[in-house]
Amino acid sequence: xxxxxxxxxEVVGPLMAIEQVAGVKYDELVEIQxxxxxxxxxxxxxxxxxxxxxxIFEGPAGINIKNTKVRFRGKPxxxxxxxxxxxxxxxxxxxxxxxxxxxxxxxxxxxxxxxINPVSRDYPDEFIQTGISAIDHLNTLVRGQKxxxxxxxxxxxxxxxxxxxxxxxxxxxxxxxxxxxxxMGITFEEAEFFMEDxxxxxxxxxxxxxxxxxxxxxxxxIATPKMALTVAEYLAFEKDMHxxxxxxxxTNYCEALRxxxxxxxxxxxxxxxxGYLYTNLSTLYERAGRxxxxxxxxxxxxxxxMPEDDITHPIPDLTGYITEGQIILSRDLDHxxxxxxxxxxxxxxxxxxxxxxxxxTRKDHAATMNQLFAAYAEGKQAKELAVILGESALSHTxxxxxxxxxxxxxxxxxxxxxxxRTIEESLDLGWELLSILPKTELKRIKNDMIEEFMPEGE
Length: 458
Description:
Elements: E1 4-5, E2 8-12, E3 15-18, E4 28-33, E5 39-48, E6 51-56, E7 69-76, E8 78-81, E9 88-91, E10 107-110, E11 121-122, E12 127-129, H1 133-136, E13 141-142, E14 149-152, H2 157-167, E15 169-170, E16 177-186, H3 188-201, E17 207-213, H4 218-237, E18 242-248, H5 250-263, H6 277-285, E19 289-291, E20 297-306, H7 314-322, E21 325-328, H8 331-335, E22 348-349, H9 365-389, H10 396-413, H11 423-434, H12 447-453
Parallel strand pairs: 9-17, 14-20, 14-21, 16-17, 16-18, 18-20
Antiparallel strand pairs: 1-7, 2-3, 3-6, 4-5, 4-7, 5-6, 8-10, 11-19, 12-13, 12-15, 19-20, 21-22
Helix pairs in contact: 2-3, 4-5, 6-7, 9-10, 9-11, 10-11
Protein name: V-type ATP synthase beta chain
Pfam family, one: ATP-synt_ab_N
GO biological process, one term: proton motive force-driven plasma membrane ATP synthesis
């Protein structure tokens, strides 16, 4: 029998203090009945003797302490899941918002999930094609990886997120592919952009969307990625799907954590964020992976906007520690109207070598990737030298490197947000650009490979 309490003593922001409680557990789901009969939900944050601290998901507006009744449900916050969720749109708490029918659940799952036993993990080593050359060829994403995108205010990360959701696929696989898209703290305009783009391009048919708007309570923002990842794990490990989880914007999630931490009067850490920010982020990011004996997988692309473009800020800094690389967007490339403005030199995918090569992509993948990196870096240096000393100071080879760099940015990186290149097309384009340089400069590619793949007449 559920007990009902009328012993609310304080409401501070999204937090409610209740006294004289018994048998209450951490993370337990709470029903809050207001004086007008409306029901709000909450979650137990803290228990000390006969006192409980509850976070209210719908916000505290209109709560009358004297007449509010609280019921502890005896179970954690959960989400009803079904394969029918694919193609549907939900709010940040998992409620249907696309005017379709309610989901008939197959299971009800705790949104906190279960930690994957490291012994049960399978190594990520299968190539995922995003259709974006700067990712597929140079910073390869593999199945089961977590590869974040580091953006900045005003940079087109929402267009990049939509492009990846639209184009991503696993090659040479019979398993079904699904995208779980979690948007946190975005504006109504951004939400409309994503939903319109997904519907127009047909991406919605294989997607599950969770949309938490900027005017929704901050506390709901904390539940949104957990909802999305719980659905992703269900589709991957129960329904044998390859699932790509795109979470944007993780900065808004961390800001919500800081807001709740301040309301709890916790001692702040770096830049006012709670000291447990690393632990909290790792509980989300580490839900990516593959399991031995299971066909499905969960791959993550968290997207975050770096405050003031500062990569040493706690959010990108800690994210970089936990994840396997990062894709960095460049403001200079964006100003030059390069789309997507991916800065390939500081970007990194730590697992790229495992997902490339013969049988996965093509045998020339690794060699051309290394040569393109080296040539682009050389060309950037030559361009900087020309700015300081003038173009006349450049050698003939330096000028070829400058030409390569200009064409690399204009043709290879600048593919637009609606061009879907296969990995073969990206590799062939790479060879075409490398043909600008003398063969003696292609020191990272074996001669027999140059003979086989270099375009005729070069």
